[in-house]
Amino acid sequence: MLTLDHITKRYGSLTALDDVSLNIAPGEFFGLLGPNGAGKSTLMSLIASLRAPDAGGITLDGIALSTADAAGRLTLGLVPQHIALYLELNPEQNLGIFGQLYGLRGADLRARIDEALDAVQLNDRRRDQVKTFSGGMQRRLNLAAALLHRPKLLLCDEPTVGVDPQSRNAIFEYLERLNREGLTIIYSTHYMEEATRLCSRIGIIDHGKILALGTLDELLTQLPFEEEIRFSANAATATLAPALAVQGELTTHDGIHRFRPRAGAKLSEFYSLTESRGLPARLFTSQRPTLEALFLHLTGRTIRE
Amino acid sequence: MRIILTLLGKDFANLRRNRSALVLSFMVPMVIIYVVGLVFGLGRSDSGPSGIPLAVVNQSDNPAAQKLVAALQAEKSFHVITEFVNPDRTIRPLTETDLRPLIRDRRFSYALVIPPDVLSETQLGLHLKILSDPRNDIESQTVNGLLQKTIFTHVPDLLGQSLQARAKKFLGNPKLSEFNGSIATAVAKAFGGDPAKIKADIEQGNFGLEELAASPAKPGAASSTGGDILSKLVKIDTEQVVGKDVKSPTATRIVGGYAVMFLLFALSNSSAAFFSEKNSGVFQRVLSAPVSRAQLLWSRFFYGILFGLIQLLALFFAGHLLYGVDVFGHFGNLLVVCACVAAACTSFGMLLSALTRSPEAAASLATLLVITMSACGGAWFPVSFMPEFMQHIARFTIVYWAIDGFGGVLWAGNSFGQMLPTLGILLSITAVAMTIAVWRFNRSRIFD
Ligand SMILES: Nc1ncnc2c1ncn2[C@@H]1O[C@H](COP(=O)(O)OP(=O)(O)OP(=O)(O)O)[C@@H](O)[C@H]1O
Ligand SMILES: [Mg+2]
């Protein structure tokens, strides 16, 4: 459905996107996971043809997108990272304006506004100024405004920033429903939990490059370990470090040790070691590795650094 | 077009919610125009039934003098006082000796004395004495002007008599009679009527100016030499008699000047709103819809013109209510001028936001430029007050040409054709500023 072909985008001397190629199939829920400044918003803006790439091309349903061709954007919905609403106006007016920009008029427009406000549970606030809304309510409206014209491809740029868990859940459920109904979604985030929960396929992006691409399982198999054990770095556990280095990989961040046994190594070896040092098992938590671990593995940094 | 209309609707909906912009664009200029108008003595001349207190003492037994008093009493701008109230509440006519102490007591600031020798033989014109409290210089000028106007429009006999008296002194009686006779013949020939009756009228000082005051002379109606002389004489009088009210140029300048200044402020502010839209991401959303950059820019431009038109007309209407600016006499031309001024001001605002990098920079540059342009361009005081080199600089400001346009329509009553040079200049300013602005917008980071 959407093809990005060797896209490069520079801002002056800074390369925000570096030779990015990507294919999105219809009906996908694609996650773009990356830290601040990775180039997520830049990628979104290129797909929405707000900017032109310095190299490469983007095609949507086989048609090349360009900043000059407004008609190509009809099938596309963008949820900008910032609240992109007229704060002085109410939801009805906002949706009315954005709907009209897509050529919607009259009864059809009104019906869709009702539907959209219902979907994001803002019907009872439809006549209140948006600036009086909470962050979560504004986020929900920000999402609704991108859906009025029923796009085939929805670009969500960090749509849950600063949202309380309840609103966040409402947004997730709505997006999941839309995706089940056939909407293709590209969802950027720096929360790996969001990518894990929502996305059928994930691209990990950093410094303008896609570092890894695939389903969650595919991504995690790129890790050379299947299990990760975490424990706090303190005097009691300090003596473990040299011994563990032989058994696998040990990294330390924010006072937390993460130990990944070498492939094929048995966890029982780890626990017999800790037992022999008189360290109780409750000090250690073992879990399946996460995207976070993958990011760390790929970049040597945690995603929120 | 629909997209532009949608965006326009959005801008106006936003404006309606933006109380401070509304207050700044409409209320503040109205108040300032009102106050500045008072300072320039506009309000006093037209402030309804009470008017400016004017004491009148008539010492002349000339019937025309009595007529002048009646005319002054009829003039709405004056509140004529002719009586003195004694401490015991009895009333007697005011005398000249009463006037000075009463003026010092601030009971009134102006007094007119019509002396027994109101018609002097040594001087053309009338001999009147005006006593005033010079506290308000501008007001006394206004009073002077109004007195002249009243005399010219209502008591032209006095002037005629003055003319006759002076002619008598120079020519002597027989020759004057001959002169009057030849004029009467010429008048009768040109306009019809009985020469003898006309001659008698002329000797009474009645040149028919009263009728002329009511209806302007028809040029080219007279053919004889006498008629030519008369038409020349009449023409001079006609201009004074029928000419515009003395207060109009000042009122037009004040209303027009401040209206343009506040329009420039309002439009540079709304252009700065362009930035906040950009920063808030609304820009991205709008441009991710099937909306082109050009449509976005033109909707801004049309919004500016519409807004400017509304603001200018509202302020002129206020000027009409406050100071009797003649808005409706030339409404069509006024509309055209306002549209051109609004276009020029909009392009100025858009150029500013195209050239600056942040709303703050745009706002401070706007303040600086708008104030400079208003001062130099004649919004605050007439350009003719300024040194010559400043007068040349003035011509480079939008404000100057706006005021020129408003004055042309509202005061001089210029036709559309006569307005064309000014309109052309305003539109050229618009074209140049918009070209640079659009060029810069397409290159600048506002879209990036
Ligand atoms: N308009 C711009 N001009 C110059 N540099 C820019 C511009 N927009 C983004 N950048 C730079 O490009 C890089 C990528 O930015 P981008 O906004 O795409 O990152 P992001 O992944 O969306 O980050 P975040 O999670 O903070 O939103 C950053 O280094 C940023 O500073
Ligand atoms: Mg971003």
Outline the secondary-structure elements.
The complex is a heterodimer of chains A (305) and B (448).
Chain A: E1 2-11, E2 14-24, E3 29-33, H1 40-47, E4 55-60, E5 63-64, E6 76-79, H2 91-101, H3 106-119, H4 135-144, E7 153-157, H5 165-180, E8 184-189, H6 192-198, E9 201-206, E10 209-214, H7 216-220, E11 228-232, H8 235-238, H9 240-247, E12 248-253, E13 256-261, H10 267-276, E14 285-287, H11 291-299
Chain B: H1 2-17, H2 19-39, E1 52-58, H3 63-74, E2 78-81, E3 83-85, E4 91-93, H4 96-104, E5 110-114, E6 129-132, H5 137-154, H6 156-171, H7 173-191, H8 195-203, H9 209-214, H10 225-242, H11 248-280, H12 282-288, H13 293-323, H14 331-355, H15 359-377, H16 388-394, H17 398-410, H18 416-443
Parallel strand pairs in B: 1-2, 1-5
Antiparallel strand pairs in B: 3-4, 5-6
Helix pairs in contact in B: 1-13, 2-11, 2-13, 3-5, 6-7, 7-8, 7-10, 11-13, 11-14, 11-15, 11-17, 13-14, 14-15, 14-17, 14-18, 15-17, 17-18
The structure holds adenosine-5'-triphosphate and magnesium ion (MG).
Q: What's the story with the biggest beta sheet of chain B?
A: 4 strands, mixed
Strands side by side in the biggest sheet of chain B: 2-1-5-6
Number of strands of chain B: 6
Which ligands are bound?
A: adenosine-5'-triphosphate, magnesium ion
How are the strands ordered across the major sheet of chain A?
6-7-8-3-9-10
Q: Which structural class do the helices and strands of chain A define?
A: alpha/beta
Helix/strand order of chain A, N-terminal first: EEEHEEEHHHEHEHEEHEHHEEHEH
* Mean residue pLDDT of chain A: 88
Order of helices and strands of chain B: HHEHEEEHEEHHHHHHHHHHHHHH
Q: How many domains is the backbone of chain B divided into?
A: 3
Radius of gyration of chain B: 29 Å
**Rounded Rg of chain A:** 23 Å
Report the sheet-strand fraction of chain A.
25-35%
The helical percent of chain B reads 55-70%
